[in-house]
Amino acid sequence: MHRSGAAMAWNVFKFCTALRGLGSIMILLVLGVVGVTYYAVVLTSYGPALYEGGLTSVTAAAVLILFHGLLVMLLWSYFSVVLTDPGSVPPNWRPVMDEERGEGDPLTGSEFGVSPADASKQRVRYCRKCSQMKPPRCHHCSVCGRCILKMDHHCVWVVNCVGALNYKYFLLFLFYTFLETSLVTLSLLPHFIAFFTEGEIPGTPGTLATTFLAFVLNLAFALSVMGFLIMHISMVAANTTTIEAYEKKTTLKWRYDLGRKKNFEQVFGTDRRYWFIPAYTEEDLRRMPVLQGLEFPSKPDLDAQEF
């Protein structure tokens, strides 16, 4: 039994080491898919169509404007996830009960029927690997080798953990990836159908192969990201993470579920102008400690839950 446990631990270690080794390779892979798609849509298909005149030019212009707009938001969101630290436990952190918080706090005021998590009602969580106490909703990432605030999962595509400080950016990355890949799939569909019809197809074998590859890749990403996006939307609505969804699968009531509106604001902020861009207002960062990943308002009657 001891030997099998040691072997399993060694396998997990090797797996985590392999994930760390991927590093920039995954970023280059993402940029490679973007490059192939850009070549197929802009340089091969719809760029030249701009000069054909009539309805064809109008359609091409509309596709290219949407394509570039979504591409900018996709890359902005993607590199925000990659470059933003998901959140680490501050040195010498200790659970405290903030009794000075004003009643006007948008997410923890008594008028909302919630309260900050009371440390006296919870079991203090301790990470043996980091040799430190863990805040609520914090978990240790074996790939990053540290505890991550409100950890959702470690994503190989962004070469980073998804946690309290970059979860919104990750969701926007999924959202804009789904829109962009869906647009590309629909835009290249007539060209894809042409491969299976009789008649001469304009273009060199290289451009035709690139267009075919771009269509297949974007269709595959659109379908897979759609499922992933739906899953995360449901988790945002319930104010839970991927790890918590697994841990509390037998729990009927969730202490952090404050209603869909408040749950959404805990991820995206309260300013609607910033909901669809990977950034927060200074006002939200100042008034909402939940965005820092250390304090989370909860239902007082469920404060004894240990997650």
What does this protein structure show overall?
The protein is mainly α. 52% of the residues lie in helices and 7% in strands. The protein is built from 8 helices and 8 strands; from the N terminus they run αααβββββββαααααβ. The strands form 4 sheets. The protein has a two-stranded antiparallel ribbon with strand order 1-8. Helix 2 packs across helix 5. The longest helix is centred in the C-terminal third of the chain and has 34 residues. The relative contact order is 0.14. The N terminus is likely disordered.
Blueprint (SSEs and pairs):
Blueprint: H1 2-22, H2 24-49, H3 54-83, E1 115-116, E2 125-127, E3 132-134, E4 139-141, E5 146-148, E6 153-155, E7 160-162, H4 167-194, H5 205-238, H6 242-247, H7 260-268, H8 282-287, E8 297-298
Antiparallel strand pairs: 1-8, 2-3, 4-5, 6-7
Helix pairs in contact: 2-3, 2-5, 3-4, 4-5
Unreliable segments of 5+ consecutive residues:
1-13, 98-120
Overall pLDDT confidence: 83
SSE ordering: HHHEEEEEEEHHHHHE
**Total helix count?**
8
- Measure the end-to-end span: 29 Å
The major pleated sheet works out as: 2 strands, antiparallel
Concise structural overview:
52% of the residues lie in helices and 7% in strands.
Features:
disordered N terminus, 8 strands, elongated, mainly alpha, 52% helix, two-stranded antiparallel ribbon, single chain, 307 residues, two-stranded antiparallel sheet
